[in-house]
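pinging the channel bc i need a second pair of eyes. not urgent but kinda urgent?? the chain im working w is below, pasted from the shared doc
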Amino acid sequence: MSSRRTKYYEDTDISEFEIEKRPTDPKSKWIQRIIKSISMYYKRCPYYDPKTGMCFIAYNRRDNKCPRDGKYEGCRVLEEFLSKRYDEIKSSGKPLPYDFRDLALV
């Protein structure tokens, strides 16, 4: 069987679903690695309360309901939280955790 490859001559020919997003800066790489490790241990977001539908990260906000019903892939609230944690850990000079479960220990 021969595999067919499509040749793209312009960037406009490629749809957004065909482009694989690869983070380039260390912060976004770390955030993506932590989100991948969450998927190994949890089916839903660990900061989501299924009984009330509340997000524990957004607890202090006026609308603390989870906008994604516990789905953590592509959740802006979770990514913002991890971004803040990254900044806190880097500013304190501690090493970055490699796994989500190690995040609580730092």
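so The chain has one domain: 24-105. and The mean pLDDT is 81. — does that match what u expected or am i reading it wrong
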